[in-house]
TrEMBL record:
GO MF term set: inositol hexakisphosphate kinase activity
This protein's name: Kinase
Enzyme class: transferase
Taxon lineage: Eukaryota, Metazoa, Chordata, Craniata, Vertebrata
Cellular component annotations (GO), alphabetically ordered: cytoplasm; nucleus
Species of provenance: Chlamydotis macqueenii
SUPFAM superfamilies: SAICAR synthase-like
Length: 386
């Protein structure tokens, strides 16, 4: 199995890896595993499907490229343990550990190197990314177009270097296998929102706690209960993705947040008003579920809003070449049908709830910081709609 960097990672700091078309994996954190094992049924439509655990270790090839190796024999045990622990038919454990037996070899090779990255993108030469067009280098040149979201690659390189400097090659790392929630989209437009008015977990050191509190105070986390952590949006006029990272999101004022949310719904030609109603309806459904969850605190978790960037022909607006298009001033075009959208909660490493194995503090009632963020998000989208 070739484990590749996940090209659509727009936020976070841990590297997400693509296991196969429908599955991604990330380093296992016991608190996150605890959440996936026992999450309420009502929340499952808003989280990625949990598929099990895979064991991985680092290896360097003769050229010095870092590779990741998986040992199937070790995964079978963890699968059996998990099957017993969960016993819930709605959690499908990665096709009953098919990956552990189907290869016929003793070790499945899970590998990534810089040279192989080029091969990955040959399949999709149409995926072109860029950062903000206003950013230029010292010579006034536009940044080069990349065939992957620059943030995902940045995380990937950092993570592999961290793993190789801290651990020897035989150290086994456990990774969570999760549903790839953007696999059904050809041109996935993704907005990563850090939700809630508080970002530090109960286990944070005083220094980390102070750092997170400061980040919240200096961003829209305090005023709106939500801040932008990353974004990629397909631009139909240029044929590539526009990307923003968490540093951009941290600097935004509430008005800047509103404009960026609008920009997320702009495809370079017009505002995708057809997306507003389905997104708002899905956010309202999530809000109703979160209000009913007593004791849950989703500290530092993110919310993904996803939609298909390339429109159906009948839904696309005619191009007006005489109109100088301003990114923040999209002209509205009303689509005839609801576009496919998705809203998913991710990143539960600091989520706490009663009965959690890693629970440090017991809370009562719903997560009001998260609810505050969701309500403001819905309000801003309704304003854009109006």
């Amino acid at each position: 199995v070739l484990l590749e960097p996940f090209v659509h990672q727009v936020g976070g700091h841990m590297s997400m890896m693509k296991y196969d078309e429908h599955t991604v994996c990330k380093p296992l954190v016991s608190q996150e595993l605890s959440f996936y094992e026992s999450q309420p049924l009502a929340m499952r439509q808003f989280t990625p499907q949990y598929k099990g655990i895979v064991s991985v270790h680092l290896k360097k090839d003769s050229l010095g490229n870092l590779t990741l190796m998986a040992s199937p024999s070790l995964q079978t045990e963890s699968c059996a343990r998990l099957s017993n622990a969960i016993g819930d038919s709605s959690v499908t454990l990665w096709h009953k550990c098919k990956w552990a037996t189907g290869t016929g070899s003793e070790h499945a090779l899970v590998k990534w190197s810089h040279t192989q990255l080029a091969k990955t993108f040959k399949e999709r030469p149409d995926l072109q990314y860029r950062t903000d067009p206003l950013l230029e280098d010292a010579n006034g040149n536009q940044p080069e177009r990349n065939s992957s979201n620059p943030w995902g690659l940045h995380c990937h390189r950092q993570h592999l270097n961290r793993m190789s400097s801290k651990h020897n090659e035989n150290k086994l790392h456990q990774f969570l296998l999760l549903e790839n929630v953007v696999s059904k989209y050809n041109y996935p437009c993704i907005l990563d929102l850090k939700m809630g008015t508080r970002q530090h977990g109960d286990d944070a050191s005083e220094e980390k706690k102070a750092r997170h509190i400061k980040k919240c105070e200096q961003s829209t986390s305090a005023s709106l209960g939500v801040r932008i952590c990353g974004m990629q949006v397909y631009q139909a006029d240029t044929g590539h993705f526009l990307c923003k990272d968490k540093y951009y999101g941290r600097k935004l004022s509430p008005e800047g947040f509103r404009q960026t949310l609008r920009q997320f719904l702009c495809n370079g030609n017009h505002l995708r008003t057809d997306l507003l109603e389905p997104i708002i309806l899905r956010l309202k459904a999530l809000l109703s579920v979160i209000r009913k969850q007593s004791s849950y605190r989703f500290y530092s978790s993110s919310l993904l809003i996803i939609y298909e960037g390339r429109e159906h022909k009948e839904n696309a607006a005619p191009l007006d070449n005489h109109l100088h298009f301003q990114k923040t001033n999209c002209t509205a075009v009303h689509g005839a049908h609801h576009s496919r959208v998705d809203v998913r909660m991710i990143d539960f490493a600091h989520t706490t709830f009663k009965g959690s194995k890693c629970n440090h503090t017991a809370y009562d009632g719903p997560d009001h910081g998260y609810i505050f963020g969701l309500e403001n998000l819905i309000k801003i989208l309704q304003n854009i709609s109006e």
